[in-house]
UniProtKB/TrEMBL annotation:
Alphabetized GO MF terms: isocitrate lyase activity; metal ion binding
GO biological process, one term: carboxylic acid metabolic process
Sites where the protein binds Mg(2+): 183
Cofactor note: Can also use Mn(2+) ion.
Keyword Repeat carried by entry: no
Phylogenetic classification of the source organism: Bacteria, Pseudomonadati, Pseudomonadota, Gammaproteobacteria, Alteromonadales
Name this protein carries in UniProt: Isocitrate lyase
Cofactor requirement: Mg(2+)
Active site as annotated: 221 (proton acceptor)
Keyword field contains Protein biosynthesis: no
Pfam families per UniProt: ICL
Catalytic activity: D-threo-isocitrate = glyoxylate + succinate
Keywords attached to this entry: Lyase, Magnesium, Metal-binding
NCBIfam families with a match to the protein in the record: PRK06498.1
Amino acid sequence: MSAYLQDIENFRQLLKERQTWNAINPEYAARMKAQNGFRTGLEIARYTASIMRKDMAEYDADPAAYTQSLGCWHGFIGQQKMISIKKHHGSTDKRYLYLSGWMIAALRSEFGPLPDQSMHEKTAVPALIEELYTFLRQADARELGHLFKSLDDARALGETAQAAAIENQIENFETHVVPIIADIDAGFGNEEATYLLAKKMIEAGACCIQIENQVSDAKQCGHQDGKVTVPHEDFLAKINAVRYAFLELGVEEGVIVARTDSLGAGLTQKLPVSREAGDLSAQYNSFLETTPVTSLDDLAEGEQVLKLNGELVKPTRLPNGLYKFRAGTGEQRVVLDCITSLQNGADLLWIETEKPHIGQIAGMVNEIRKAVPDAKLVYNNSPSFNWTLNFRQQVFDAWAEQGKDLSGYDRNSLMSAEYDVSELALEADQRIRSFQADAAREAGIFHHLITLPTYHTAALSTDNLAKGYFGEEGMLAYVQGVQRREIREGLACVKHQDMAGSNLGDDHKEYFCGEQALKASGKDNTMNQF
């Protein structure tokens, strides 16, 4: 017997024992139970953590089994994304959601649009996680509701085989609930603050928390200047704080992504205390920009002296008190950051780069894997990259090395539309198309995400509609550019009343009131036009 049919039988037996519950229909109760498969955020966190662990193991066995996500700034956006994935690809397998701190700052703060500098309310982070899962659970309830309606119709027509097939669909229903990789920025404060926020995020449903090694109160977007990193000991304390939060809440398989911004960060806030030569603090300090000290005359008032590699040196200190790293040490610092994080509790890495270059990423990952063979990345396929220009220049440079004739191209103007149908542009587009698969295979990338794609798609679609609707096209801009496409491309959202829950509400009214139910889905509902 299927779980659905077993639930009906269980409720039937229960109702026999509760004589005053005679108005309750056991099958309706079973349906409502099926439509609410997850009752708490912690249930979701445990379920999705197990999915991520399985996917990580499958990637280790075969790099072609990489995973993907898109950043979503609202529950509706996440819901529509997962509905679309099920419609077009048949399964949500290996597809996640990404929660971007950048988009929370830009779109969800009560202060209004903010830069990605951890100035937004930290409570907005768990609130968005809860919102996303509320919408995904509603997508489950809606789709199952349609299946239940089809089941009733098949039974009414005596279509036994069709009814059995629908019951099988119900029994093997695939949820829209998937893992969320959630951005906690630099932890929003000290280790205790990080722990408290991590708990709220996990309780809301997060199975995976991404944390970065920037200074919390000087945090910058990964693609802006002025980034300041913290010593390893400080960062590891926050990794520990997140792990304790997972363990306390019973999410033993929770995943931590350790992000390093060292590639683009040239500053550190403080110098860690080294206790012996070559220890972790000494390694961190070895990357500092310094000048030799041979006498007190080499020092100005208030300057500091360090003993590094047996010599006295003074670190370069800026007027704001920050210390500079030596130029050209970014990749070395990234490798040390990543090895240290993986050896001290992190599960996955995030290396924030300035361009999407597989060779650059692979060079760092190969060094990391000498110490941690199964090291793997979450990688930001960032909208901050000019993908067209980057890949056209990569092809240009590769062809130059091969001695190919490039007289028809100007490397500095390759973004120009005049090159769009050129051989070079077509080759670049093919490399962009295969970038994720190639990088998963060659550079250890387990998960590919775009941090803020839906920020851009919302702007682009709104611009297209506004251009026509407020221009000569008028209403045709909406009909032709939106509604007609929704109908012909099979978007469920064209029936917006149903998407917003009106049919679910009608079902419940019928359950609760029987024939007295005042339902919205009668013959005069304009949604019947679609």
